[in-house]
Amino acid sequence: VLKPLGHHSTGAIKGKITPFYSSGFVKAYNGTDTSYALPWWGPGNFKIRGLQPGTYDVFIDGVNGFSDTTISNIVVEQHHETNLGTIQLHL
Question: Please, what is the average pLDDT of the chain?
Answer without folding.
Answer: 91
